Amino acid sequence: MPCRSSEELDGLVREAKKVTKHGKVANYIPALQKGNRDDLSVAIYHADGTCLSAGDIEQKITLQSISKVLSLALALMDCGEECVFNKVGYEPTGDPFNSIIKLETNHSRKPLNPMINAGALAVTHLIKGVNVEERLERLISFIRDLAGHNVITYSLEVAQSEFETAFLNRSLCYYMKQDGIIDEDVEDLLDLYTKQCAIEMDCLDLARIGLVFAMNGFDPVREKQIIPVEVARLCKTFMVTCGMYNASGEFAIRVGIPAKSGVSGGIMGAVRNRFGIGIFGPALDEKGNSIGGIEFLEMLSKRYELSIF
Ligand code: DON
Questions:
Q1: Is 263 labeled as catalytic in the residue annotation?
Q2: Residue 53 beta carbon below 6 angstroms from any ligand 1 atom
Q3: In the chain, where does the domain assigned CATH 1.10.1500.10 lie?
Q4: Which atom of ligand 1 approaches the CA of 284 most closely?
Q5: Is residue 167 packed enough to be buried (19+ CB in 10 Å), middle (13-18) or exposed (0-12)?
Q6: Distance of alpha carbon 174 from alpha carbon 220, whole angstroms
Q7: Ligand 1 atom closest to residue 287's alpha carbon, by position in its atom list
Q8: Is 139 exposed, middle or buried (0-12, 13-18, 19+ CB in 10 A)?
């Protein structure tokens, strides 16, 4: 679908770009270092099927942590709420996304929530399939359905780069294996998780998926319920309470839109019953969120009174 470039969005993006010089492109996954600090692009996909954009929305980005919302939706659809929340909690955290500390100090031993790395690994563990290939294929098919087209795949380069350097995520897995939260081979789980994080798409796809969440799991373009309403509600609640990691409280105050970020600089947002938002801006703030993306969302939310609060 052609996306119309919008002067108004262009203006907001130009304004938001002023802060990108204060951010840094992620480098702990070596392949992500190639991102350009000054890029910022945005797509907004409306429920009537129209789309507005600013910047180079055709650039592909890897989902990284944005994939955690999608794997959560699939795991909830695969094994139900009780099974998922047997492995992972509901509570936000003030710790960074890759922190290990609560796995030891938290009384229940469960990762605090599905949006931190430990919780996301425990959720990915629940995706059904006979082997890694089938589980990945099921996740990718689900994401293709959400985005409404079939050309989505993952970047082998980014997946390998993360797999080779994921020492902390390996530690989280071993900790959880010790405590019986996961029971599969750690290398298999990391293989699946790093490929999940390396699934690639552009801002338009992100906005389109955001729209499905905005419409409570319903794709208004193809008139199809893709995610059960209750699963979409759960996912959006985590987007509000944990979607921006340990910056979620500040984001709720400054922006107030259910959203999820990833270290590649992507943000997916869902404005209830109205539109989905896809953003790509690789310069990150100190908490790992797109600095230009957050600035843009703050301006957009204030201008159109989009906060849910
Ligand atoms: O597990 C990791 O470290 C990455 N694949 C994803 C982390 C991420 O995107 C955190 N985001 N802000």
A1: yes
A2: no
A3: 65-197
A4: 12
A5: exposed
A6: 42
A7: 12
A8: buried
C-alpha of residue 30 to centroid of ligand 1, in Å: 13
Confidence band, pLDDT 50/70/90 cuts, at residue 270: very high
Structure tokens at 157: 């380069």
* 263 within ligand 1 shell (Cβ under 6 A): yes
| 3 state DSSP class of 259 | strand
Mutate to test the pocket of ligand 1, among 93, 157, 263, 264 (most ligand atoms within 8 A of CB): 263
Cα–Cα distance measured from residue 119 to residue 242, given in angstroms and rounded to the nearest whole number: 11
Active-site residue among 67, 154, 193, 195? Answer: 193
Q: Is 67 in the pocket of ligand 1 (CB under 6 A)?
A: no
Determine which residue's CA is closest to atom 4 belonging to ligand 1.
Answer: 64
Over the stretch 237-249, which tens digit does the pLDDT of each residue have? 999 999 998 899 9
Options 1.10.1500.10, 3.90.960.10, 2.60.40.1930, 3.90.180.10; which CATH number does 65-197 get? 1.10.1500.10
> Quick check: is 245 catalytic?
yes
Q: Would you say residue 1 has pLDDT above 70?
A: no
Locus of tokens 């390996």? 170
Q: Is 68 a catalytic site residue? A: yes
Residue 266 scores a pLDDT above 70:
yes
Token digits of residue 148:
């409404």
- Mean pLDDT value across the chain: 95
Least confident of 187-191, 213-217, 242-246: 242-246
pTM beyond 0.85: the answer is: yes
- CA-closest residue to ligand 1 atom 8: 65
Active-site pick, 71, 245, 264, 271:
245
Distance CA 98, CA 166 (A): 11
Q: Which residues pair with 239 in a beta bridge?
A: none
CATH topology of domain 4-61+202-302: Beta-lactamase (3.40.710)
Say whether pLDDT at 107 is over 80: no
